[in-house]
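hiii, so i know i said id send this last week but things got crazy w the move. better late than never?? heres the sequnce for the chain we talked about at the cafe, plus the structure i predicted for it. fair warning i was half asleep when i ran it
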Amino acid sequence: MKKIKNVISTQSWIPIEEILENGIIKTKNKYLKILKITPINYNLKSDLEKQAILNSYKIFLKTCNFDIQILIQSSKENLEKNILKIQENIQKKENKYLKNISKNYIEYINKINSNKKSSSKNFYLIISKKILKEEYNESFEIIKSDLKEKYFKIKECLSRCGNSVFEINKKEECLKIINSFFNTRKEINFKNKEEIKY
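okay and structure toks below
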């Protein structure tokens, strides 16, 4: 007789217990909040601007004296829709010169895509509030307030560097980000989102 192996589900492996209001994620020992950061192009800044950004970043590191996790997600862009639109426009154009330019542009896009240079990056910060044994019954309002205070500190400091900081407040957005890290090869189809429960 063959032994039946106990299959452990993915959800039991992921430490997330629940996604609460305002996009606060509850795990076994802490509450988490995801912040999305809009980056700046540091290389395009002047030397004076670069120095100001670095000084502001030092202030950020000194001011935000709490745990922060930085996540950078790189994903290849799907340029098929762009190519289809260009091809549709080629058929409408009568000018041969414009048609040639459009065809050359499609070749260029395909070349970039095949070399994996057409990728986009998303930047996230994760802030947390630990659940201590003596504070286990701490009210949710205090937890929300603590995470909100950390968010405002980060937003204030990083805005001096030129970055924009956004809270991820909706459950669906949280699910999309979490799943994109655990399931990098497949985009989530939110028509079937009822299958994913936290």
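btw The longest strand covers residues 119-130. thought thatd interest u
miss u guys!!
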